[in-house]
Design a protein that fits this description.
The complex is a heterodimer of chains A (about 325) and B (about 280). By secondary structure, chain A is mainly α. Chain A starts with 11 loop residues before the first helix and ends with a helix. The longest helix of chain A is centred in the last third of the chain and has 35 residues, at about 285-320. Residues about 1-25 of chain A have low confidence and may be disordered. In chain A, about 70% of the residues lie in helices and about 0% in strands. Chain B has two domains: about 5-65, no CATH class; about 65-275, MetI-like fold (Orthogonal Bundle). Chain B has 15 helices and no strands. At the A-B interface, helix 1, helix 2, helix 3, helix 5 and helix 6 of A face helix 1, helix 2, helix 5, helix 6 and helix 7 of B.
């Protein structure tokens, strides 16, 4: 940086005060000052850069090679063959479809229930604090632990509690996990992520200006139109943020699939992360697994760019307030 | 806004308040039920845990916890603790100075740096698994807990930087100015001004690091096997359980979940801010 160092301060007052306290240095001093300022950032930046970008570069590199870990010396340049193979195989298409179905359904249902619970907890009801404490439980339980509890003690067709409870309506002894594998995984992910959505939306609701609501009421707006025209637009960025962050996490679902269905029966619950795991650690096909990895990065980055935009919007709203 | 106005707006009649309260409690209990059931099953004997109809009233026993602890559970728990505490400390040590550089006297292109950090958090884990596995293999770091420490630090550092920055932005500038007038350097400023005021931020960051590192399964299951295996890996042994094992499974699941469950409940206020990287308070 050759310019004298005046980085845009977050708050105007800061620059003025700094100028008053210390005359602005010029030339070499400024250059040194700018490096001194950057110094605290460097360890973290370098660390994250190395541990995320080297593997990513290697993924791209490996994806261009035919390499099976079980066959020493099989490392050969393959051009785009891995990509061609990955795109032409039905297992990839199934995994993409499963990922989309799982993510869309889990996020959509979790958002709807999460918003409903947030509205409930934002109203006047007894024991709000306790209710919130209970509801965030599912999000905090270790996902692998929760997966086994669901599979064995709740959904097991013989000993499961769900089978017992549903026997009077003729649905006892249904093998939920094997007959409706995707629905079972979606249910468990919804159970886990609803509290997350609820927390974000509840925080949004609690920052709502009550005077606006009061004004609407005085103007004769009823509950539904107040919700439709005032509350809903207000909480929209929070809902969007929850949905987008949730998508980024749920796209990566692995724990519950590994613990409950192992991607099956057949390929019924194999999503992209699980397919990559199978190709890499059952097939030991590094090239193909890497191609799937590159593919998943591209897909994720599309969702992530929306998430980042929303995140920055909320930061700006918060800053203005 | 006055309390009176708030009351006027919010006060529904007693009847509807009772109705919504009942709805709220039913929903909350439904959501919490699997957690509660796990806790109940953990204190039963094996036949009680798998009985039909389900056993509701029973004399609690600690047998299953004893059985789990007598098996090889403790090393898994200790590995989880090392991976979590190690990576959390690294996140704080690396993250706080970085957040300072991005918040207190923001450098040029601070926004780009923030963007870079957070975009790495959204890279799919799966995409870096194969190279990390091969790197770990070549560096003789497979089944080594420090490989997990390094990876969990990377996962949590972006969140830590964002979160700590949001807390640093709240410290009034006058305090920094006063310290600078007194001739305080960077280190002094950090220890005298920042540290005492940013304690809630450190707590929130530690909580989020704890949740993500303690519960992490994908890298753990693929990069460790026996020596460095963490507590979720212990649960893998229950996947193809035969015979009576529900009570033991529940006890193990309880022990694995308890640290995050307790921390999350205690620090509920920090949870939401942490999960949204400081965007939502």
């Amino acid at each position: 940086m050759s310019q004298p160092n005046i980085s845009e301060p977050a708050v105007p007052g800061r620059a003025v005060a700094a100028g008053a306290a210390r005359p602005r240095p010029a030339g070499g001093t400024a250059r040194r000052d700018s490096w001194v300022r950057r110094l605290p950032l460097l360890p973290a930046l370098v660390y994250v850069f190395l541990i995320t970008q080297i593997p990513f570069a290697l993924t791209v590199y490996y994806s261009l090679f035919s390499w099976n870990l079980l066959r020493p010396g099989s490392f050969q340049f393959a051009g785009l063959q891995n990509y061609a193979a990955v795109l032409s195989e039905s297992s990839t298409r199934i995994a993409i479809a499963n990922t989309v179905v799982l993510t869309l359904f889990a996020v959509a249902i979790a958002v709807v229930i999460g918003v409903a619970i947030a509205l409930l907890l934002n109203g006047e009801i007894f024991g709000k604090g306790v209710l919130r404490t209970l509801i965030i439980g599912p999000f905090l339980v270790m996902p692998t632990a929760a997966a086994l509890i669901w599979k064995d003690t709740l959904l097991n067709p013989i000993f499961g509690l769900v089978a017992y409870v549903l026997t009077p309506v003729g649905l006892g002894h249904v093998d939920w996990v094997n007959r409706f594998p995707m629905a079972a995984i979606v249910t468990i992910e919804v159970w886990r992520w609803t509290p997350f959505m609820m927390l974000i939306v509840l925080a949004g609701l609690q920052s709502q200006n009550l005077e606006t609501l009061e004004a609407a009421r005085v103007d004769g707006a009823n509950t539904i139109s107040t919700f439709r025209y005032i509350t809903l637009p207000f909480i929209r960025p929070f809902v969007e943020l929850g949905a987008l962050l949730g998508s980024l996490f749920i796209v990566q679902t692995f724990d519950s699939i590994y613990m409950i269905t192992q991607g099956g029966p057949g390929q019924a619950t194999t999503n992209i992360p699980f397919l990559l795991y199978l190709v890499a650690f059952q097939g030991f096909d590094v090239g193909k697994a890497s191609a799937i990895g590159v593919f998943s990065v591209v897909l994720t980055m599309i969702v992530a760019s929306f998430a980042l935009r929303t995140l920055f919007t909320i930061f700006h709203v918060e800053a203005r307030r | 806004m006055s309390i009176a106005a708030r009351r006027r707006h919010r006060a529904p009649h007693g009847g509807s308040r009772l109705l919504w309260s009942v709805v709220g409690w039913v929903v909350a209990i439904l959501f919490f039920f699997p957690v509660l059931w796990m806790a109940l099953e953990a204190f039963k004997s094996e036949p009680q845990a798998a009985s039909i109809p389900p056993t509701i009233l029973f004399t609690p026993t600690l047998d299953q916890f004893q059985a789990v602890l007598a098996r090889d559970f403790p090393p898994f728990f200790i590995n989880s603790a090392i991976a979590t505490i190690g990576s959390t400390l690294l996140v704080l040590v690396l993250g706080l100075p970085a957040a300072y550089a991005l918040a207190v006297r923001p450098i040029k292109r601070a926004r780009d740096a923030l963007f870079f950090f957070i975009s790495t958090r959204f890279l799919p884990f799966a995409a870096s698994l194969v190279p990390l596995y091969i790197l770990a293999r070549d560096l003789h770091m497979l089944d080594n807990i420090f490989a997990l420490v390094a990876i969990y630090t990377t996962i949590n550092l972006p969140l830590g930087v964002w979160l700590l920055r949001s807390f640093l932005l709240e410290i009034p500038n006058d305090l920094f100015e006063a310290a600078r007038v007194d001739g305080a350097g960077f280190v002094e400023e950090l220890t005298r001004v920042v540290l005492p005021l940013v304690t809630p931020g450190l707590a929130a960051t530690s909580l989020i690091c704890l949740i993500f590192a303690w519960n992490e399964f994908f890298y753990a299951v693929n990069l460790t096997s026996s020596i460095a295996a963490t507590s979720p890996i212990f649960l893998v042994g229950f996947i193809s359980g035969r015979g009576l094992f529900y009570a033991k499974l529940s006890a193990a699941a309880m022990l694995c979940s308890l640290p995050v469950l307790l921390a999350g409940w205690i620090a509920q206020k920090q949870l939401i801010r942490g999960l949204t990287m400081g965007a939502v308070k």
